[in-house]
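Title: Comparing notes on inverse folding

I've been comparing how different people in this forum approach sequence design from structure. To keep things fair, I'm posting one structure and asking everyone to reply with a full sequence. Here's the target:
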């Protein structure tokens, strides 16, 4: 349920509400918005039946949260969450663009890419150091050495680093380097991993599982939010369907659907969503038109030599062109890029 505080409620009123919620063995999430403060109460709400919050001083109203996800719901926070990670801001008027290789491969590769994508307007640098690969025989990433190279690229360019963490044990290590922790599609329902990143204060990019519904995506986000980390971005990266002309099927209706139901910003990944470099720019532009708050794009100095996902990766010139098209679309829909 949501306990809405009166506009001028005193801090003591809020503290009294929080204490009463905790006394019921429920968890209060205080959400301070620009217009109102609410306490989202999560847990088994049967425990709150007849608890009389309405009559406490400073309380304006009490209402149920209808959605199965709670803290993620627009019902508890009407303003979109702005995720801030150094140079990368996602959820405001400006669209955040995260670009870089699928995998970190060498110092030259990551630094050269960081300089090129920054020059084209990217505000975040992606690069996998821990790679979750379908085959155990495929390149698994440079691991800690890859994280060190990402940190060098950040030092050279100032770009925030977005990199994947694949297991709860690796969270402390990856957190030492990353500005944004990426939870990959394969791990969207790895609940122990979601809890582990929920205990950090590092912003999270949560990718949709290829066979997960959007409601399951929101419930996965809820694990992170419930842990106390509110800096969460959702990422549509395509789902598995019967269709084979693209690697996955990229459903862009997800973007306005999510915007209606959650305050979390939405990023689209047209690289994994299509699997083909020649489709990426069109789908990036379509994502911006659909209202995406951010894009994540695979870019490599020489895609045909990339150690992973080369077929869907843009070279520097193609990325620059994509940015020009997306910038025009962004202006047309009232955004900046
Ligand atoms: C990636 O971003 O390189 C990646 C592995 O993506 P996904 O988890 O969406 O497959
Ligand atoms: Mn990839």
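Reply #1:
Here's my take.
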């Amino acid at each position: 349920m949501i306990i809405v505080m009166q506009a001028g409620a005193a801090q003591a009123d809020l503290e009294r509400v929080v204490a009463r919620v905790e006394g019921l063995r429920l968890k209060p999430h205080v959400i301070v918005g620009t217009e109102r403060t609410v306490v989202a109460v999560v847990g088994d709400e049967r425990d709150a039946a007849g608890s009389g919050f309405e009559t406490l001083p400073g309380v304006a109203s009490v209402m149920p949260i209808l959605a199965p996800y709670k803290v993620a719901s627009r019902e508890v926070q009407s303003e979109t969450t702005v995720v801030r990670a150094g140079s990368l801001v996602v959820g405001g008027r400006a669209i955040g663009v995260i670009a870089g290789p699928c995998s970190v491969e060498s110092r030259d590769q990551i630094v050269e890419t960081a300089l090129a994508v920054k020059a084209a307007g990217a505000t975040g640098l992606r690069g996998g150091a821990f790679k979750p690969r379908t085959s155990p025989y495929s390149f698994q990433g440079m691991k800690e050495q890859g994280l060190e190279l990402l940190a060098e690229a950040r030092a050279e360019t100032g770009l925030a680093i977005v990199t994947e963490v694949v297991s709860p044990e690796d969270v402390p290590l990856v957190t030492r380097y990353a500005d944004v922790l990426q939870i990959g599609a394969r791990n969207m329902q790895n609940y122990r991993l979601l809890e582990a990143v929920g205990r950090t204060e590092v912003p999270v990019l949560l990718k949709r599982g290829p066979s997960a519904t959007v409601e399951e995506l929101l419930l996965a986000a809820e694990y992170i939010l419930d842990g106390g980390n509110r800096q969460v971005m959702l990422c549509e990266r395509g789902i598995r369907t019967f269709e084979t002309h693209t690697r996955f099927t990229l459903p862009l209706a997800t973007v306005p659907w999510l915007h209606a139901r959650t305050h979390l910003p939405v990023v689209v990944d047209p690289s994994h969503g299509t699997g083909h470099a020649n489709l990426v720019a069109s789908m990036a532009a379509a994502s911006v038109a659909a209202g995406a708050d951010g894009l994540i794009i695979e870019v490599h100095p020489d895609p045909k030599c990339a150690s992973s996902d080369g077929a869907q990766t843009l070279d520097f010139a193609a990325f620059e062109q994509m940015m020009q098209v997306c910038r025009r679309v962004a202006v047309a829909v009232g955004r900046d890029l």
